[in-house]
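[audit] Reproducing an earlier prediction to check determinism. Same input, same settings, fresh worker. If the tokens differ from the archived copy the diff job will pick it up downstream; this log only records the rerun itself.
[audit] input (417 residues):
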Amino acid sequence: MSEIRNYTLNFGPQHPAAHGVLRLVLELDGEVVERADPHIGLLHRGTEKLMETRTWLQSVPYLDRLDYMAMMCNEHVYCLAVEKLLGIEVPERAQYIRVMFDEISRVLNHLVLIGSHAFDIGAMTMILYTFREREDLFDVYEAVSGARMHPAYYRPGGVYRDLPDSMPKYKPSRFKNESRINELNAAREGSMLDFIEDFFDRFPKYCDDYETLLTENRIWKQRTVGIGVVSPERALALGFTGPMLRGSGVAWDLRRKQPYEVYDRLDFDIPIGRNGDCYDRYLCRMEEMRQSTRIVRQCIEWLRRNPGPVITDNHKIAPPKRETIKSDMEELIHHFKLFSEGFHVPEGEVYATIEHPKGEFGVYAISDGANKPYRIRLRSAGFIHLAAMDELARGHMIADVVALMGTVDVVFGDVDR
């Protein structure tokens, strides 16, 4: 009799479907997964400890580099935590701008996920389509902050500056003739709000194209239907949030259940699944992008009608205007103290959380009254979801592990921190 034994296989750390530097140790019985052991730490940068050595304001750019698929959402929850400790009010216009950019970030995140998930499974066209749309949204990021991916645009007390009145335009080059340039610049003749409105007028048609490619595609359904099924009770027990929880049929969304900023004034629906498999989670994310379109349109309409300040007028927290610095000594001192020493936050501890594209993202902060955090701890949705990979993968084939990695939606800057 030949000896029968299980094989152990390394999935990653540089596997293209590992969505980062994950090492997944698979114990196999033939091609069936008996056990999946996620090994993390290969990207660990000690973000939480680094933030404890920087002022409260200097820590904002660290948040962008956590989940680099939904950058402004990370900044948002940190700013909410600091604002709770400081007890300051954020101007209404800044709240609408934050909500609008949160939803733009949600679309950015889901575009990457759906494109790369399909690419992992073998549908190469999708990622070309989704990254085409991401370019327009990155142009919006760049116009408002100067950076395409790591904007550091949200600040405690509001946002860095108001929305610009114009969008950068393409210029003729040896790669694009004048007629092509005019076509590309057609939506860039007005303000940034005009450009965002034009994009979200076009976007539902793009979503239709994605669904034409995937939703009823028999290969896509064979690879995702019935894979990684999680019951509603088990999803709650495992600590799932976001589309991972809603895909199992639990209608939990912090934008509705614990509203923050101006979400309670906006009209949108919460999509939920029925079967808790990879396919339902895909459908939830597709519908979430359509709901984000509704939210952004409402924000654009409000922002057009209501000019106003976009950051607190407390100059111990936010810098004074440039023109006043040049004429008022006290304002100059405020500016110097803010950027050399930072602001002091009253003693206390706080937990702030938002509905991040991946699920519930939270910041737990403790202040001892100094200009730096005493402790910062981050609650990342991806970390909790990755912990369930063993349960999700058991009994499935090796090829299904790739589909499961896509549906879990992990980014390793976020997981390893």
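[audit] rerun output stored. Observation attached for the diff report: The two ends are 49 Å apart (CA to CA).
[audit] end
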